[in-house]
Write a structure and sequence with these properties.
Length: 76
């Protein structure tokens, strides 16, 4: 795949899948380009949205899932 084809595919993903506007697309393309990754990978790995609002999304994390203090106490 050529770089142009890849860029067009990335733009299509940002517009069609993520529903981004021009400013958001520019920001994501700059960030992911600087990191050397594609927007789809970035979105899949690092963005978690449920559409339920920030208060409810914040409650989806289980603080006891990886408790570093407990881990260190068990293994060190």
């Amino acid at each position: 795949m050529t770089r142009l084809d890849q860029t067009l595919e990335d733009l299509e993903y940002c517009i069609e899948t993520l529903g981004m506007d021009d400013d958001q697309i520019e920001e994501v393309m700059d960030i992911t380009g600087g990191l050397g990754i594609r927007p789809e990978y970035f979105s899949d790995e690092f963005i978690f949205l449920t559409g339920r609002g920030m208060d409810e999304d914040g409650q989806l994390h289980d603080p006891d899932y990886l408790n570093i203090a407990v881990f260190n106490g068990m293994y060190f």
